[in-house]
User: Fold these one by one.
Assistant:
Number 1:
Amino acid sequence: MPIVAADLKFLSSERMTDEMAGGLLGGGHAVGPVVLTGVANSVFPAAMPADLATGRRQLRQVWPAVLSNENSLASTAQVAVYQRAADANVSLLAFAAAAVAVEARDQRSLPQAANALDYAYLAAAGVYAGTLVSAGGNSLSGLSYSPSDLIKVGEKVGIVTSTLKLAWRNVTAVDGAAGTLTFAGTGLTGLGAGAAVQVYRYGPPNVRVSAPGHLTAGVIAGAQQVTLDRLEVRVQPVGATSATPGILNASAAVTQSYIGANPFTRAVQDLGGVLPAFWPGWPVLIDDPTNGTPPEVKVVESVNYVTGVVRFTSTLANAYTTGSRVSTLLDVGNLRAAVTLAPFAQQTWNRTWADAVTGPVITPRYAGAIAMNNAGGITDRWALVFTSATAFNLVSERYGQIGAGNTASNFVPLNPLTSQPYFTLPASGWGTGWLPGNVLRFNTQGAHAGVWYGRCISPGAAGADEGGLIFRADV
């Protein structure tokens, strides 16, 4: 049967923790079990009194997964934070990032995730040198371009010092002729008179943050813009230091390369405490849970961080009441279990997980079509190591030896999490000439994608910290 809504689930990761375990922090592969829907503390534990008093940042990796007992495509899968915490001192957000892997076959671990989040908005449409007017000032002058051509009043830009400290500011005035920008908020402290700065205006997203805003007033069908009560999301507790749980040590600078080939070396807490949650070009979900109005997906045309107005590229089909939610959607791609490396034969098994033949070329082949099942398939590398001319053992890179089969029968190893096959090798595909020690190698991917879910608790929170994720796809 085709994919239905009940097949769209979240799986847990290997390490649903912030603590160091076996040299690795939280995250890892999708392993299950299914994250329970509508159950409190199914991702984060209950906030402890110490967390409410001093603050904490936590990250958990979950995996939106298609658990259908067949192999249909879930197209344009998306995830969003659709419910935020009732306590304003508790911030919930989600993001997906193509960050650097910790090891060849592991997924993103907490250090990479934390910095992917912190570096999310450094992807630049252009980098422009400028000079701070005065220490603690609110304007830039001497910019090497005409700012009015690219930056508009109400937009948000990041100001980065030569030591790579980042400050986000709302643009309140632009003078293209003079080459100056003026910002709202507190002064740009710590830059110093005449300090060199760079202006980063967000370009094509490699990391998108999801956090909901609520309509401050109702809108009618045909409206093209809404006003939201919140356009940013807090990613670090107020007053966070290296001693705050979940914040990396300031003395341990990290190197990242999320912006082309240019690495940035700096500590996490150099970042300001909030990030923009909406940006032109991003898709958003508009939803009114109070009266059953159908949700809509729109693309953001512009965002005014001074007035709170978000304009869409097309008009709304429905009316929405005050308090309706607008959540940034995270694209996690097309989800379907698949064979990602065609099977190839190798003379001997050297326990090296190379994706090409090593050693002499041999003539035996497997010519069958390996069948995949969304509910059973996982992302892994596989080796079938022959113990005779017809029998073999199944070895997984992640789990080691997990089964055995032979060329006379269809080989259907089951995933114990779902009781569905990891894959199916029809017996009809086997050629002749296999010898003990020969190997058949191939790779598969599961119908899932990793998403990081974050909770930031600032001091003084009362503990109303529940939120929720939504997972949607075209089927």
Number 2:
Amino acid sequence: MPTTLSDLRRALSLPLLGDQAHAAMRPQGRIAHPAQDAPPPNLAGVLMLTYPSADTLNFVLIQRAERLYRHGGQVALPGGRREASDSTLVATAVREAEEELGISLDQAEILGSLSPVYVQPSHFMVYPAVAYLDKRPRFAPNPDEVAAVIEAPLDALHPAYHVEADIVTAQGVLLRAPAYAFGGCLVWGATAMILHELELLLRSSA
């Protein structure tokens, strides 16, 4: 059955799974938490924006512009670094999504949050939020930050779309990583870990 808003609400009401969910999608050699002697990580918020599409829900990803220093060219949830003016990390996620996608989220409903993920290469702790809009927004992505907008059904969060991929990072490092393959793209790293937690919550709540 297609995933509904009620399914999503029910999934987000369950206890979060954290590392239990993230481990299955963590690239080889990456650590789950900052080293004890490391400085505090930078903070970021990302948004999983959902909206109706036919009889199911879609969510949106972005392909980051190649020119970006951190994670250029990668497929990710919209979001970015927390700024001093942001009241919360959810506010960070919303602000960044509005800026990157060129949309207003004034009417969006925040449904909940998922477990934070540590991104070792950039030393960021990323906090995901999940939101819902009652209709598809008209995207006008910022070309300085976004190369493409990728729309996918929540039903793509399924083992049928899991793959193992050889990834060349922006730094030219070859690594082996679990990933999602849908919409003509590979989703790996922190974004895949976030999506996998929601996948498991949706399956648990079914």
Number 3:
Amino acid sequence: MSITEAFSFSETFALVKEIKTAMYTDMRLLMYAIKSYRSQDKLKYLSELDINLSLFKVFIRLSYKYQYISGKNYASWSKLVTDICNMLGGWINSCQKK
């Protein structure tokens, strides 16, 4: 069962759509960054990815606030997104040093 299946019907068309769109956009930006050869292009995509991950964190918080996900799910999602943000920060720093 998908985590977004626990959302109410009315939120299926709002918050769930935003969450899915953010995830797909993040995957797209990650692929663009991986395939880019110039550091400036990588930095552009990685910066956009960082902004989108911040939005994704907001969506997770809203999901928890409105009790669409449990505290356990909130903790798991938050930890995973924080780990991704930390790795992304390291990647951005390495691109800036070149």
Number 4:
Amino acid sequence: MKSSLLQILPLIPSEAFCLPAKTTLLSAGETASKVFFIKEGCVRLWYNNDGKDITVQFFMPGSMVASFESFFKETPSEFSIETILPTTVAVYDKKDIEEYRLSHPGQLDIALDFAIDRARNYVHLFLSRIKDTPQQRYKDLLEEAPEIVASIPQHYIASYLGITSVSLSRIRKRLSQE
């Protein structure tokens, strides 16, 4: 029987932290050496595009986040990671993850499944930016992740959708009138 990520995490040493909103977990330009498991709250992965803050992804309880390209390739991250709400995280150090991986080589499928899920999420986001209107992207977000719409400040949602807060307000108003 294949183990799941949630079964393995307790086997790897970690530290738990309760963090206030707007706590930076990783800044762009730093090399990632930690992975964060979200127990409560919300974290976002974001990119600074010439001073414009672009939210790439939200991570809710039960999710893991890191700048994985930076973590595995040991290169500077292009992304920053920060808490949006007060958040409780378990923090896993690269050294401990590597020790576990080397002593349990059969567990590689779990990492592969996780990487495939992340890639699928990025492809979905990329394609939605190409083919869907902002209103459709918002409707999809409402359907797929209502907890994000209910708990995350509007300016982060607008950034994630690739629109301004004013445009998002207009979309929300239109949808409420339907």
